[in-house]
Amino acid sequence: VLDSQYGMYVWPCAVVLAQYLWVHRRSLPGKRVGAGVSLPGVLAAKCGAEVILSDSEELPRCLQNCRRSCLLNRLPHIPVLGLTWGRVSPELLSLAPVDIILGSDVFFDPKDFEDILTTIYFLLEKNPHAQFWTTYQVRSADWSIEALLCKWKLKNIHVPLHSFSADKEHLASSSLPGRHTIEMMIISLAQSDGT
């Protein structure tokens, strides 16, 4: 039964993002990575990245489940923080700069898009060379983040799934009803010259 604790599931977007990480695993050792509570963050840690996992501070069950997952994966040292999109908190302010931010299926409710990009912008400002690697399920042709990217001086690059062998049905499929088209993009700060 689905409930508001979405972080309790491994969604198809997480599997696709994990595939991207696996293909780029040799670049992960030594990188500082901020991630959600799902498979991609755990995989990044297994591949040698220094990872911080997080979900909304309002979802303690998800945070606790993530801590259990870390223990089961022999990663007891990974910090799991309650961070909420769009909310400035002492935990967010004290985060050290990261190189990569991972987010699978975070763009699912348009009312949250600006909060997400506000937080991403804050994190990218701490390290202007950092990137936000994100996968999302296409839920509506009417939803777009383009205006918000422009507002927050961010740019995105579409990453075709076939470029990292994630276009296979067994990776991006789900037993849940409905359409499950998965896309990936990398978001970074736009350069001061307007690019």
From TrEMBL:
GO terms of molecular function: methyltransferase activity
Record bears the keyword Transcription regulation: no
UniProt keyword annotations, A-Z: Methyltransferase, S-adenosyl-L-methionine, Transferase
InterPro entries (UniProt xref): Methyltransf_16, SAM-dependent_MTases_sf
Pfam family for this entry, one: Methyltransf_16
Superkingdom of this protein's organism: Eukaryota
Gene3D superfamilies linked: Vaccinia Virus protein VP39
Protein family membership: Belongs to the methyltransferase superfamily. METTL23 family.
Name the UniProt record assigns to this protein: MET23 protein
